[in-house]
Each structure stands twice: as C-alpha cells, then as structure tokens.
Design brief:
Pfam families: AIG1 (PF04548). With 240 residues, the protein is an alpha/beta fold. The protein has two domains: 185 residues, Rossmann fold (3-Layer(aba) Sandwich); 46 residues. The protein is built from seven helices and eight strands.
Length: 240
Amino acid sequence: ELRIVLIGGRYNNLLSGKSSAGNFILGQNVFNTSRRTAQSEARQQEVFSRRVTVVDTPGWWWTWPKENTPKLDQIEIQNSVHLCPPGPHVFLLVIPVDLHLSEQIKSSLKDHLELFNVDVFSHTIVLFTAVAPCNETVESKIRRNPALQWILQQCGNRKHFLNISNREDRDQVKKLLEKIETLITNNGFRHCSVDRSQGETLRKEMRDLTERASKRFDQVQKQRNKLKLQIEGRLQVSFL
C-alpha cells in the first residue's frame, strides 16, 4: 500500500497540475481538473499490483505568506493527512516545468509546509509536470533557477518528471512508485505520524467556519431582499 499527498502552489492563471498528476498516477479521471481544488479529496486505485491512495489538496499562491491564504484552505491542507490513515508515506510537491519560481517562494513554501506539523521535506519528492513536450530539459531549468535548486536540496534532491499529456506511458508512473518505495525504505518504513485528535479538531473548525459563512450569506441575502423591496416600493410610489 502507498499513501500519497499532492501539494503545491498556484501562480497567476497557471494551476499546479496536482489534480491531473493524481489522475495520471491512478490511471483514472477521479479528480476534477476543470476547476481549482477547494477541498482535500482522497481517491484509491490498484496501480501495478499496489493499493495506491492519492490525496489532492488546495493549492496556495506560490508568492503569498501563509497568513494571506484563506483559513479554510489552510484547514483543508492540514486535513489532507487525515484522509489517508494512518498517515501518508510521501508528499509529492507538484511544480509545472513552465513555472518560473522566484526567490519569494522559499518563505512561502516553508510557511505552508509548517501546516503539517511534521518534517515534510524528509518525506517529499519534487514532481515536475508538463502538459506538452518540453523544449528545455528539467535539468537545465534547475541549473538556471536558484529557487528550484534550494527546493531540491531541502528534499534530498529527490525528483521525478511526469509528462501528463502522454497518458499511455505508464512506465513514468512505475518509475515514480519505485522512487517512492526507495524513499519509504530510506525513512525506515515510517509514514508521517498523524495526530487523530488534531483531525477531530480540524473537522470541528471546518464545520464552524462553514456555518459562519452560511449565516453571513443568509444575512447578505436578507439585506438584498430588503433593499430590493424598498426600491420596488419607492418606484411604485413615484408612479402614483
């Protein structure tokens, strides 16, 4: 059994490709790629005789500090590790090959990985993704980008390239799973430890936030309806 959590950021209109990568790994279109991921979702399939669980998560803005990420997104990211009990074996940090990462992302990445309360870097493989044939090799991009070099150093230089436009090439996935198993072995077959009580606390926070948002929405709708009635009443008076 392999338990995988997909993490990563967003930049302008370029999505991270986490959902597409999850679909590619599982060999099924189980994650919706037509919209941004708002909630952490877990899906499971048998892949090369292994039971593989993949958890997709909301992406944060690559250059934003954690405090600028909506609280609900933060909770959903934290909750991802509770959707693959007893805990994930690996985090795949998904980075599109076309994305140019500036030095700003260092603090943002550190900030957001602190949401997990574990040493995420020691359980992470950087997953470079491309949706079209790449004109430039990943290695040459890394050589020209100090931020990418720093990320890879934090992750023990573990990386994999996935051409998600070539869905027929399942050998890409096979090699990725082999790299994950090597990482698990090097980590002493330990998965990331997960605090169950924290999971319950997060679910309660999500319920509370959702209820408050629902109440605010109801209040806004009531105010709009009240205003609409007032405007309609004034219009009727003006016609008399």
